[in-house]
Specification:
By secondary structure, the chain is an alpha+beta fold. Helix content is 57%, strand content 18%. The chain contains 12 helices and 11 strands. The protein has a 6-stranded antiparallel sheet, sandwiched between helices. α8 packs parallel to α9.
Length: 425
């Protein structure tokens, strides 16, 4: 056993350093755990997405020695959009280091994180092929990218920069990955909350439109009952009362008048019933109902309907037939009211999966987005909602003086077919 004082002193120093390192690791681990807990709490307390992203970057700054950082969110159009950033001003004199929008497939290190769904640590960017050369990246020598994953889907990434190579460690990577998981969950929650809020506002607007449409239809029916049917019944009542006071030889003429009044009243009630819902739509299907409606529409409005159709002689699920009929009916009503034309083109075609409708006029046109966003057009909104409720879509191309092209696509598979089969079993 050696008694060399210098060697003993060296071993004691090594032990003390080891103990200090262990204490430092323990303190750092405790600090990381506390910060992650605080970050999770703070992220759950704010409902604003931008505020939450800034909080994530602030929390990362207390755990990882980065010089600049950004969080990019993946959009549906295949781009990464910078949602929040920190620390770039010192390098770019107030200019953005990253463009606000980056196309996926143009920057190798970002693409690697998005495509592999794994974090990427670049110890020295000088040694990394294809490092981008846009303004502001000259200071970056050490880079860490962490994907923000929601399940198996990458919804964004966190980018951390350092001016010195080799600063980020695997421990920093693990911390960033843990915080990235929390951030991804928080981002998804914010997006879901926004979708629910938007859906609720849209539902409220739709409910208001529905009530307005119902009340308008009730007023129309009440007016029809009062003005036409009510007056006809009143006249019929007077004729019958008069007959009772007439001599027998004059009763026959009055009875004929009463019979004509009853016949006219029955015809009017039938027309009113057909306006509400044509029975042939249920009995014969979409094509006969549309042909009947076009004849009636042209007689009432003097607007000629050019009708072209392919593969619509067979029956479709009831939901599809009703939606298609109502969309065509409402679109033609809009043409008669607003387009100022004497001709409209209606095209309908179908295959095994989709029923497509296109209605074109060369009239005055409109601004459909303004009408829909202002919730002022119950007709346009109603057509769009009918299509969306079936999982379809409705698009309107129009502008002042350019006419209008309305296209609707309605799916015929999935739950619609199952419902149709259940009805006929």
């Amino acid at each position: 056993m050696t008694h060399d004082p210098q060697l003993q002193a060296q071993r004691i120093a090594e032990l003390e350093q080891l103990v200090a390192d262990l204490r430092h690791q323990q303190q750092y681990s405790q600090r990381v755990a506390t910060m992650l807990s605080d970050a999770n709490l703070m992220a759950s307390q704010t409902l604003d997405l931008n505020t939450m992203l800034v909080l994530v970057l602030e929390q990362l700054a207390q755990l990882i020695p980065y010089d600049s950082a950004s969080i990019m969110l993946r959009e549906t159009d295949g781009h990464l959009h910078v949602g929040a950033q920190r620390g770039y001003a010192r390098w770019t004199e107030g200019h953005q280091t990253h463009p606000l929008t980056i196309s996926i497939g143009t920057i190798p290190h970002l693409d690697t994180v998005v495509m592999t769904k794994e974090s990427l640590l670049i110890p020295d960017t000088v040694q990394y092929p294809g490092w981008p050369a846009y303004a502001g990246t000259e200071h970056v020598r050490n880079w860490l990218g962490v994907p923000l994953r929601a399940g198996e889907r990458v919804i964004g990434l966190c980018s951390l920069d350092q001016t010195h190579p080799g600063c980020f460690t695997d421990a920093h990577r693990r911390v960033a990955e843990t915080l990235g998981i929390q951030a991804a969950i928080a981002i998804q929650n914010r997006r879901l909350f926004t979708q629910v809020l938007t859906g609720r506002e849209r539902l409220q607007a739709l409910s208001q439109q529905l009530v307005a449409v119902q009340e308008a239809e009730r007023r129309r029916i009440a007016r029809e009952l009062h003005d036409e049917i009510g007056q006809s019944l009143t006249g019929l009542k007077l004729v019958l009362e008069m007959i009772s006071r007439l001599p027998v030889d004059r009763m026959l003429d009055r009875l004929r008048e009463a019979q004509v009044a009853v016949t006219d009243l029955m015809a009017y009630v039938r027309e009113l019933s057909l306006d509400l819902r044509p029975a042939m739509l249920d009995d014969l299907g979409l094509l006969p109902a549309l042909l009947w409606h076009f004849d009636r529409y042209m007689a009432q409005t003097s607007v000629h309907v050019v009708f072209k159709h392919t593969n619509i002689r067979s029956r479709f699920p009831a939901e599809v037939e009703i939606a298609a009929y109502r969309i065509v009916q409402e679109a033609l009503t809009n043409v008669a009211r607003h387009a100022g034309v004497d001709e409209v083109i209606v095209q309908i075609w179908a295959d095994s999966t989709l029923l497509s409708i296109q209605i074109v006029d060369h009239g005055r046109g409109c601004d459909p987005q303004a009408a829909l966003s202002a919730h002022t057009s119950s007709g346009l909104a109603g057509m769009r909602e009918r299509a969306m409720l079936l999982g379809g879509q409705l698009t309107i191309l129009s502008g002042p003086g350019t006419g209008t092209c309305l296209t609707t696509i309605l799916p015929m598979q999935g739950r619609l077919e199952r419902r149709a089969e259940e009805r006929y079993q």
